[in-house]
Amino acid sequence: MADPRTVKTDARRHHDPSVRGFASDNYAGAHPEILAALALANDGHQVAYGEDEYTDHLQRVVHSHFGPTAEAFPVFNGTGANVTALQALTDRWGAVICAESAHINVDEGGAPERMGGLKLLTVPTPDGKLTPELIDRQAWGWDDEHRAMPQVVSITQNTELGTVYTVDEIRAIVAHAHGHGMKVHLDGARIANAAASLNVPMRAFTNAVGVDVLSFGGTKNGMLFGEAVVVLNPDAVSHMKHLRKLSMQLASKMRFVSVQLEALLAKDLWLRNARHSNAMAQRLADGVRAVDGVEILYPVQANAVFARLPHDVSERLQKRFRFYFWDEAAGDVRWMCSFDTTEDDVDSFLQALKEEMARRP
């Protein structure tokens, strides 16, 4: 039988690799160092379901970032990480307080409530960030059997609006939540971008300030697939292994998720990628500010730029570069930068924006 490593594939490229847009950092491919790590782990056999050498070594890498009590549970995707983490933190009658704009509320198809069996108690925010005062709008009624019991505060770092919590802001939220007997979950889909923006280690605004559980994101920062639930406070959860399986997030060939996380975290790839995508967003924002008639809506603190511009301009611009409306009625759009966004990509987009704005009467 032929050596499978020498067999040629019949696959064909179906896209133009020179085309990059500003729709999502999920549009980007995998970083070459991630692909190299996958190839490294591919040969031979390894024990399935997380009993492999790569998942074991990942734990030591995670300890270097989040302390010796942290434990990583690799999963398939971000929604799976959030749902599994929130289930681990709540009782069947429990509820989770989050921003109205939170990904768990807006972009996960109701999975936390439908699949996780918990209630989301949302709070409107001006910039995507919760505060102790905003949390108190929903932090009540623990003894009221007619109301879902608030048990968890979930924050996103950086937020869905591209803003970044400071270390002190998260410390205050954690202290406030713990003071009410609640636990704290951090959705870290873009945690690397937040750390790069703040210029602090990820531990500074997670385990060091008392966050209980983290959803660690890698796909938006150069991984091919996979995320992880990182338990920072072992006393806050129980039966994570069982919950991961119950939530359909247990990978049989887990080494291929773990080796990507290891490649991202073992050295500085996570930070290099995040710093680059953040820098491209700043370059984009600087250029946009010079275009009359375009308004930047929120502080540009990570790799997202939210803007308001005429609807017809956005529609024409979308034919040249992919991006999404955030609030189509208001004319709000979101432009995302990725680890592979280039300065030429940004400059070409800005030139196209200027051209389309100039076409207006």
Describe the structure.
There is one protein chain. The radius of gyration is 21 Å and the shape is globular. The chain has helices at 32-42, 53-66, 78-89, 103-106, 111-114, 132-135, 167-179, 191-198, 240-246, 255-265, 269-288, 311-318, 343-358, and strands spanning 71-75, 94-99, 119-123, 149-156, 183-188, 213-217, 227-231, 295-296, 304-308, 324-327, 332-336. Helix 8 (191-198) links the parallel strand 5 (183-188) and strand 6. The mean pLDDT is 96. The chain is 37% helix and 16% strand. It has a 7-stranded mixed sheet with strand order 1-7-6-5-4-2-3, sandwiched between helices. It has a 4-stranded antiparallel sheet with strand order 8-9-11-10. It has 361 residues and is of the alpha/beta class.
Defining traits:
361 residues; four-stranded antiparallel beta sheet; seven-stranded mixed beta sheet; globular; alpha/beta
Summarize this structure briefly.
By secondary structure, this protein is an alpha/beta fold. The protein has helices at about 30-40, 55-65, 80-90, 105, 110-115, 130-135, 165-180, 190-200, 240-245, 255-265, 270-290, 310-320, 345-360; strands spanning about 70-75, 95-100, 120-125, 150-155, 185-190, 215, 225-230, 295, 305-310, 325, 330-335.
